[in-house]
Design brief:
- The protein is globular, with a radius of gyration of 21 Å.
- Mean pLDDT is 97; it is low at 4-8.
- The strands form four sheets. Strands 1, 2, 3, 4, 5, 17, 18 and 19 form an eight-stranded mixed beta sheet that branches. It has a six-stranded parallel beta sheet with strand order 9-10-11-14-15-16, sandwiched between helices. Strands 6-7-8 form a three-stranded parallel beta sheet, with helices on both faces.
- The protein has 14 helices and 19 strands.
- β6, α2 and β7 (98-103) form a beta-alpha-beta unit.
- By secondary structure, it is α/β, with parallel strands linked by helices.
- The protein has helices at 47-50, 86-95, 114-127, 150-156, 171-183, 206-211, 219-235, 247-258, 269-273, 295-306, 322-325, 342-352, 357-363, 366-372, and strands at 11-20, 25-34, 37-42, 55-58, 63-66, 68-73, 98-103, 131-134, 136-137, 160-162, 187-190, 202-203, 215-216, 239-241, 263-268, 312-314, 387-397, 416-426, 429-433.
- α3 (114-127) packs parallel to α4, α5 (171-183) packs across α7 and α7 runs parallel beside α8 (247-258).
- The two termini are 37 Å apart.
- It has a domain at 67-372: TIM Barrel, CATH 3.20.20.140.
């Protein structure tokens, strides 16, 4: 994972509402930082305790949370920088309270050897505002045929292996990949979708029929997930389903965890907050993979985040150009920009669906850190000074001219969201500060 530049200035944020689930913090307090590290955090950090010469930031009325970790970010660097660079993605991340981006291997060239992992880490170190850690490919060129050198990729700095936007279909090859990954204690991440059942463009059902669009049944997800879990049971490897979308998948994951399998899973913010009805009159910004499902599925996903069946929330940030999105629905590219809006959209669940704030924060910070083995996602003495200051009630409108991503394909376009990061700090340095347009 790339380090970030540190700020040597000693600084204290006081009287914030601190929410740090891994440390059991949920109350008024402060945080003292110096040289990019946390010196102290909690109710005992006061104006009197921090000492003379400490710059003080009054954070009363704000919520201070660990920097968010987004486990599913696609960029176009290297190869298709017109979509997104590491630098532009990091600007969007910083504005959304994200201090660590986990980037996918779907680049040109594919992240399938140590040299490309090293390139991404060096490039991020030189250009990105936030920390960056790459996932590498399971197979060379994402071809689904020849396995990569998993041990070498981990040594180079990859935090997991995945095929990115598609599943590894060959069951024997996937079994071998799980076996090798276990030898290196490497996480295997899978996009759970059986491609022969996923040739459509939206959720299968009445709405797809009404719109005249081909559907993708939830069984496409469940069949691949159940196959994978059988292989996990056989090999004992650590496995993460990148983003599930249906009630049936929740039930499968819940059963696997009850059996004690080393399984975790994620859900995208879009599947937590939107459903197939949002597609409306063929709105391509809502064309996602997996597709948006029913309202019943969405509610099941929210409940699964609340009870911990779903471990992490991701943005699923997949920037697309206007040329690939402003097409007939069946022809448009899958994907949505999400880095900058993830936190705000998730806060809508806190405001409107009685989800505890600490659980939502955990799913975007300490939980992904634990799954990936990162020194992040926590607020305690000795930890990196990565955090976000949040105004839970600040309303803002999602428009092209305020989004920092190169791509503007946000499904929240023209919507007003409630709550956002007002300051983001990485290694003690402020990398984003909110300025009102009004």
């Amino acid at each position: 994972m790339t380090p970030a530049k540190s700020n040597t200035r000693r600084r204290a944020y006081l009287n914030a509402h601190i929410v740090a689930p891994a440390q059991g913090l949920d109350g008024i307090g402060g945080i003292l930082i110096e040289d990019g590290w946390i010196l102290a955090v909690g109710p005992k950090v006061t104006r009197e305790s921090v000492g003379a010469g400490t710059a003080v930031v009054e954070a009363r009325g704000r919520t201070l949370i660990p920097g968010l970790i987004d486990m599913r970010v696609f960029t176009g660097e290297p190869g298709t920088e017109y979509r997104e660079t590491l630098a532009s993605a990091s600007e969007a991340a910083a504005a959304g309270g994200v201090t660590t981006m986990i980037v996918m291997p779907n680049t040109q060239p594919v992240v399938d050897d140590a040299a490309i992992v090293d390139f991404i880490l060096r490039r991020a170190r030189d250009t990105a505002l936030v920390r960056v850690a790459p996932m590498a490919a399971i197979t060379k060129g994402l071809s689904g045929e020849l396995m990569t050198e998993i041990g070498g990729l981990k040594e180079a700095g990859a935090v997991a292996v995945t095929e990115g936007t598609k599943a590894l279909v060959n069951a024997n090859l996937f079994r071998r990949a799980l076996t090798y990954a276990k030898d290196f204690d490497m996480l295997v991440v899978q996009h759970v979708e059986e491609p022969s059942l996923a040739t459509g463009v939206m959720n299968a059902g009445e709405r797809a029929s009404r719109l005249g669009l081909s559907g993708i049944p939830d069984m496409a997800e469940v069949i691949m997930l159940e196959r994978d879990l059988r292989l996990v049971e056989m090999t004992g490897a650590r496995y993460h389903a990148s983003q599930i979308s249906s009630r049936l998948s929740v039930e499968v994951i819940r059963a696997a965890k009850a059996k004690g399998l080393p399984v975790t899973c994620g859900v995208s913010v879009h599947h937590l907050t939107l459903n197939e009805s949002d597609i409306g009159a063929y709105r391509t910004f809502f064309k996602l993979s997996p597709p948006l499902r029913t309202e019943d599925d969405r509610r099941a996903l929210v409940a699964a985040v609340a009870d911990g069946t779903i471990d992490v929330i991701v943005s699923g940030h997949d920037p697309q150009s206007a040329d690939t999105k402003r097409l007939p629905f069946a022809e448009a590219a899958f994907g949505a920009a999400g880095l900058e809006t993830m936190l705000s959209a998730v806060l809508g669940i806190y405001h409107n669906e009685n989800m505890p704030l600490d659980r939502l924060v955990e799913a975007m910070s300490s939980k992904p850190a634990a799954i990936l083995g990162l020194e992040a996602g926590r607020l305690e003495a000795g930890a990196p000074a990565d955090f976000a200051l949040v105004d839970l009630n600040l309303s803002w409108k999602v428009e092209d001219d305020v989004l920092r991503s190169r791509a503007k394909n946000s499904p929240f376009e023209h919507r007003t969201l409630e709550g956002r990061a007002v300051e983001t700090v990485v290694a003690g340095e402020t990398v984003y500060a909110y300025v009102s347009n009004g």
